[in-house]
Design goal:
The complex is a heterodimer of chains A (249) and B (466).
Chain A: E1 3-12, E2 15-25, E3 30-34, H1 41-49, E4 54-63, E5 66-67, H2 73-79, E6 81-84, E7 91-95, H3 96-107, H4 116-129, E8 140-141, H5 147-161, E9 165-169, H6 177-190, E10 196-200, H7 205-210, E11 214-219, E12 222-227, H8 230-238, H9 241-247
Parallel strand pairs in A: 3-10, 3-11, 6-9, 9-10
Antiparallel strand pairs in A: 1-2, 1-4, 4-5, 7-8, 11-12
Helix pairs in contact in A: 5-6
Chain B: E1 24-25, H1 32-41, H2 46-61, E2 83-84, H3 98-107, H4 109-116, E3 119-124, E4 127-133, H5 135-139, E5 143-145, H6 147-153, H7 155-161, H8 172-180, E6 184-189, E7 199-204, E8 211-212, E9 215-220, E10 225-233, E11 241-243, E12 246-251, E13 256-263, E14 269-272, E15 274-279, E16 284-291, E17 296-299, E18 302-305, E19 311-320, E20 325-334, E21 340-349, E22 354-363, E23 370-380, E24 386-395, E25 400-410, H9 413-420, H10 426-442, H11 447-461
Parallel strand pairs in B: 3-7, 6-9, 7-10, 8-11, 9-12, 10-13, 11-14, 12-15, 13-16, 14-17, 15-18, 16-19, 17-20, 18-20, 19-21, 20-22, 21-23, 22-24, 23-25
Antiparallel strand pairs in B: 1-2, 3-4, 5-6
Helix pairs in contact in B: 1-2, 2-8, 6-7, 9-10, 10-11
The chains are: A alpha/beta (249), B alpha/beta (466).
């Protein structure tokens, strides 16, 4: 089991947001996490990556069988976890190239000595894949990027770092159809028996491209319903209310 | 979460000291006898002695500034105002006493000289102990020497310009410098001569409770160019030292002078310096002023734009760490039409440090075509640290384009988390953000100094957790 979340409770300041999350993801699987606004999906993503603003009050997170609750974000990244942020932050003065080079050096340390020429070629080709102008390598990280450009930059990093688990926090929100397809293609490129993903989304559309193995519905800080891809269609036609009634949250 | 390491003073790389082996030292404190002794020791002409005494009286008369950094801890009676480390000045490093030579080796000056400098002066306590200039520059008539030697060898130049840019009674610390000045640099660049490779002076304090008062005078004759760089360090002592320099620059018609400072005094040094330039018609003066060290710094490099189309620029970088107060900025005075100026200030405060920008843009009456642009950016690394901005603007003409921008930012938790989620440790993430903040400015430094500055910032940031 790659990711195992057991009865996870977490709060920000005094407000409890996660109230007993259980979730298991096998290596090689794509899971979708859906749910109404405020149900705790983004909190779960941030808690998984170790955001210092959140406090885990009880429960466990096992990654590759290891309890990571006390693990720093940078060490979680080194273990193979990746979060594509919903709102990637701007870092003025730090170029995309410099940032990617340093992160790649750290996160791919086990893959032999770092070759800068090959790295630049790789980044350029990934930029082509993501439909980004190559000049982005000299721009300051996320500064002045449009919403779509920021999301593409997140997926580009995912492709570069090749994590075992990529958590996509509403990466599809605000994307036009072309950008959405490019993002989905990015995930599909890594798909295989060494890659898993947790796709947090509101929309059916990205899931048409990605075809998740499992779909989970989150409400009020818990996963209340899990099923196969067919759940997506059902949500699209019936909304969330029927689930609320069914599980009586 | 990793344990937060505090930046302890032991990380200052140049805090080492050697025993006091001065061949001569005045007693503690300052009076007329001490001034006369210094003058006599330097075999000065009477006019210089008289000028020193005017400085002394002004110093005694003038009050401490009632603004700026907290200077209440300075005790003028405790300080040694003059110490001669060795006899004579050498042109070869090998000829210096071993400890002095070892000092400069550790700082890396001889190596820098070999690699990318056209001339070097090295001051140890009160005297320039080493001085050298490339012979090709000498052949072109470039003078680069200790100011004492200039008083002896080029008295007409010195008398014409000394004290004309910063008068003896300009402020308390300029007056003090006038009274007891020793060491520094004298530079004269003949008309049209371009000194393509920088000249450097390095100032080292070795003694405790010491005052260093170098005096620098740079005259760039018409159409010439020179880049002068200064660096400075001192040992770490529990008692305070004082560094009060005066720098005067004259950029004559069409000349360009660039003056770069990487100030890295230890945290027991009061750094109270007066730096001023006059730029005549079409001349350009640029101050690049990096303040990393010291306990308190008060320094506002100034350019007086005296002729049409003159341009003045100040790039100020300040880093205020624990116990430090950097009160820095720039001053531009437009006295002629079609003159332009830029002040760019970037400061970083951490561990309770205080960084203040203090600047003045002044435009005289009845001028046209004046342009001025001021940008101050401050970055706060933690909630204990402080930043202040004091921009003074006095404009008496109508045809003036003046822009002023000021920004304060903090390293945000979101930035740190983002970079950490990409594998960077918290301290590396902070450093990356700080370097990014400085990047637009550091790019303008000569490569070697950009590297040096980045390294210093890195040392200051070591173990710092935002």
């Amino acid at each position: 089991m790659l990711l195992q979340i057991e009865d996870l409770h977490a709060r920000i300041e005094t407000k409890e947001i996660l109230r007993g999350v259980n979730l298991r993801i096998q290596l090689g699987e794509i899971h979708a996490l859906m749910g109404p606004n405020g149900s705790g999906k983004s909190t779960l993503a941030n808690v998984l990556m170790g955001h210092p603003s959140y406090t885990v009050t009880s429960g466990r997170i096992l990654f590759d069988g290891k309890d990571i609750l006390e693990t720093d974000p940078e060490d979680r990244a080194a273990l193979g976890m990746f979060l594509a942020f919903q709102y990637p932050v701007e870092v003025p003065g730090v170029t995309v190239g410099k940032f990617l080079k340093r992160s790649t050096e750290i996160l791919r340390a086990e893959k032999g000595s770092f070759n800068v020429t090959r790295f630049i070629e790789e980044v350029r080709s990934l930029m082509d894949t993501m439909g980004m102008d190559r000049s982005f390598i000299n721009r300051y990280l996320n500064e002045g990027f449009s919403g779509g450009e920021k999301k593409r930059m997140e997926i580009l990093q995912m492709l570069l770092f090749r994590p075992k688990l990529a958590i996509l926090d509403e990466t599809d929100s605000g994307l036009d159809i072309d950008a959405l397809r490019i993002v989905a293609q990015g995930v599909n490129r890594l798909r295989g028996d060494r890659f898993s993903s947790l796709i947090i989304t509101h929309y059916q559309r990205i899931l048409e491209y990605l075809k998740p193995d499992k779909v989970h519905i989150m409400m009020d800080g818990r996963i209340v319903l899990s099923g196969g891809a067919e759940l997506v269609g059902e949500l699209e036609t019936r909304g969330y209310d029927w689930i609320r009634e069914e599980v009586q949250v | 979460m990793s344990e937060a390491l505090t930046l302890d003073i032991g990380e200052y790389k140049y805090g080492f000291a050697f025993p006091d082996r001065s061949v001569f030292k005045t007693r503690r404190g300052l009076d007329e006898e001490i001034v006369r002794t210094i003058s006599q020791l330097k075999n000065e002409p009477e006019w210089m002695l008289q000028y020193r005494l005017k400085g002394l009286h002004a110093f005694q008369r003038k009050r401490m500034p009632n603004w700026g950094a907290d200077l209440s801890d300075i005790n003028f009676d405790e300080i040694y105002y003059y110490a001669k480390p060795t006899e004579g000045r050498k042109e070869r490093w090998e000829e210096l006493p071993e400890e002095i030579r070892a000092t400069y080796d550790r700082i890396g000056i001889p190596e820098a000289e070999r690699k990318f400098l056209a001339g070097v002066g090295a001051q140890y306590d009160s005297e320039i102990v080493y001085h050298n200039i490339r012979t090709d520059l000498e052949r072109k008539g470039v003078i680069f020497c200790a100011p004492e030697d200039a008083v002896r060898d080029y008295p007409e130049l010195v008398r014409k310009y000394f004290g004309t840019v910063v008068p003896f009674n300009d402020n308390k610390f300029a007056a003090l410098n006038t009274a007891v000045w020793s060491g520094g640099s004298f530079i004269y660049v003949p008309p049209g001569v371009q000194v393509e490779i920088p000249l450097q002076a390095y100032f080292r304090i070795n003694l405790e409770s010491f005052g260093q008062f170098e005096r620098t005078l740079i005259i760039a004759d018409e159409g010439s160019f020179v880049h002068y760089i200064e660096g400075c360090t001192a040992p770490i002592y529990s008692r305070n030292s004082l560094h009060s320099a005066v720098v005067e620059i004259l950029a004559l018609k069409g000349a360009r002078v660039r003056y770069t400072t990487i100030q890295n005094w230890s945290n027991n040094v009061y750094n109270l310096v007066t730096k001023r330039a006059v730029a005549y018609e079409e001349a350009v003066v640029e101050w690049v002023d990096g303040n990393i060290g010291s306990k308190r710094t008060m320094k506002y490099p100034a350019v007086y734009l005296m002729g049409p189309k003159a341009h003045g620029e100040v790039l100020s970088i300040a880093f205020a760490g624990k116990g430090q107060e950097q009160d820095t900025g720039g001053k531009i005075v437009h006295t002629a039409s079609d003159t332009s100026s830029i002040i760019t200030s970037k400061s970083i405060s951490k561990d309770g440090g205080i960084a203040s920008y203090r600047g003045l843009i002044k435009v005289y009456p009845n001028l046209t075509g004046i342009k001025s642009h001021v940008v101050c950016d401050a970055l706060l690394l933690d909630p204990q640290s402080k930043t202040n901005t004091y921009p003074y603007i006095e404009i008496e003409s109508e045809d003036v384009s003046m822009e002023h921008e000021a920004r304060v930012s903090r390293i945000s938790e979101e930035q740190l988390f983002y970079l950490r989620s990409r594998g960077l440790s918290e301290s590396e993430a902070s450093l990356m953000i700080v370097n990014g903040f400085l990047d637009p400015l550091v790019k303008q430094l000569p490569l070697e100094y950009a590297v040096e500055l980045n390294r210093l910032i890195e040392l200051e940031m070591e173990g710092s957790v935002g």
